[in-house]
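Replying to the earlier thread about multi-chain prediction with a worked example.

Input:
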Amino acid sequence: MPELPEVETICRHLRDGNSANPSILGFIIKNTQVLWPRSLATPSVEEFSSRLPGQAIKQISRRGKFSILTLTTDTILIHLRMSGDLLVEAVDAAPAVHTRILVNFRNGMRLAFNDTRKFGRMWLVNEPELVTGDLGPEPLAPNFTADDLFKRLKATRRQLKPLLLDQTFLAGLGNIYVDESLNLAHLHPLENSQHINEQQTLCLWNSIRQVLNAAILRNGASIDWVYRGGDFQNYFRAYDREGKACLDCGAPIQRIKVGQRGTHFCPQCQQLSK
DNA sequence: CACGAGACCTGTTCGC
DNA sequence: TGCGAACAGGTCTCGT
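Result:
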């Protein structure tokens, strides 16, 4: 479910609290329960349960689609993949059907890692760079410039859609936000990165940041049964709008398959260069 | 190097 | 109504 805006929203809730729950900053871990061992990427269940008790949550941050919990001596990283979620709840509540890992705190609260499809993963490491080291730049970082993007586009010759989904190229975009960014920038998803000029790159750079910022303001998107409280789905330009009018020209949005992923674009506004 | 297919999983929706 | 197919916000690995 989650791409950068959704992960950012979840991290903010953990860090700042919300109407339902307090911030978990400062909470001290009492123990853990791994209900589905494969959800734990590393270390072993035994080591996970022995290293965590006594450590406090010192900091909560995000890198790409990773949620990062900086502890007293270690770091927990979580990737929610398609269907993961992080919830704060009382330790005495019955775990939800799809709860995979529980981190219980001394104060009677716990962090639940729920994940219907079991694709998500949690890591416990000393050095977070071991997990996030290959990620590309953070699209909203102040030091990520349009010129950086241009250089990266020129360093390869790939179709824009799969390229923007590649987390080593740029960190945090997923299927929704790539479609949204390309539509806003009027670039065809199959356009080759070599064909993009500086003008178009500036437009793409702006579009990506505009779309991500707008989505974060709306607390991300909620789709179908995977509901998170965000409402950016009501502002989609292309994603999940097959047959509906393009917001810029009125032509019907088209849906094609690119690298196994549903891809939505406007055949009028987003033309392939010859 | 770039791309497509298959795998990993469960649940919902679509089409006949 | 029922049932199988297709599809879902992600990423890894393998083959060409």
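The longest helix of chain A spans residues 198-217.

Feel free to reuse this layout for your own posts.
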